[in-house]
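Protocol check, entry for the methods section draft. Step 1: assemble the input record (protein sequence plus ligand SMILES). Step 2: submit for complex structure prediction. Step 3: store the structure tokens unaltered in the notebook. Ligand used here: S-adenosylmethionine. Step 1 record:
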Amino acid sequence: MRPLDVDNRMDVAARFADFAHHEAYGNSERYDNWCQAIAADHEVCGLIADLPAHKQQPNLVLAATRYLGVPEAPPEVFLAWLREHWNDVRREVLARSTQTNEAGRTAVILPLLAQLDGPIALIEVGASAGLCLYPDRYSHVYDDAVRIDPPAGPSTVVTRCATTGGVPLPQQVPEIVSRFGVDLNPLDVSDPDDMRWLHALIWPGQNDRDERLDAAAAIARAEPPTLVRGDLNEQIESIVDAVPAGVTPVVQHTAVLAYLDAAGRDRFYGQMARLGARWISFEGRGVFPQIDRTIPGRRQRDDNRFVLALDGQAQAFAAPHGQRMHWL
Ligand SMILES: C[S@@+](CC[C@H](N)C(=O)[O-])C[C@H]1O[C@@H](n2cnc3c(N)ncnc32)[C@H](O)[C@@H]1O
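Step 3, stored output:
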């Protein structure tokens, strides 16, 4: 995931073709085909081009069609449906944003989190519904071989991550004593419409992610996180300051900072350098050039497009949803 302000400068056809080739290909055949069909259709590209640039994201437009019940059909049927339902799609696109909440990302966070002194106050900026705030409540399976369960036993949420490069796998999950999230628009897993939107954001054919979302939502419903509405740059200092002595504040974010412009990302980087909290960043390459510069050598794999960093230092490359990670 590149910074959104970079994507916003691409025209619609290029943006959807790029999404097909670099995001959907190999992950969702349906989205791959639909995005290529959009890229080749002048009329549909024109409809999308009339949206504000930051609303032209393929992920957002496609999620709106799924929220509205688009049939899982070949591209020509999809395009006809899109033209017919464009006013409804447009309304949903303007009202919503990409808030994919992927519990699988905690598999990538966990090896770093488990290295930190606890107990931990886990703070997530850009938390969506807060489902990445429960790494200690999920079971994690690495390389189909090593399994780490919560102290209470196996979880209904199981993350699966393939590793290379000698990932320092933890023996156990860390002790997390509070879960706090901030988001421009916190989602509520007890609200059926929010759950419907979260499911719409999962790509066609990814049934394991649908199941994981439901299981993670059940865990969050039983022990809700504290989620506040607000801008991460405005909120982070007071949230960190409120953590009591004797507890380690850990700020994490996954697939969030790409939504800020360069000035906003720089401001956040500066705050993290100053605030004294531990900082786990999991974002696409290019989001923090400051972190990219700490990547040793020039090793970069294209299928692991996200960079995991601790306190501003790159530690690993990983796949965006936490399916794979390569330790540096
Ligand atoms: C793609 S979702 C990722 C959610 C979660 N971190 C995960 O990985 O599952 C990005 C989230 O960041 C939030 N967000 C974007 N810009 C933000 C900002 N300036 N302040 C707070 N939240 C923001 C969005 O509302 C959205 O919920």
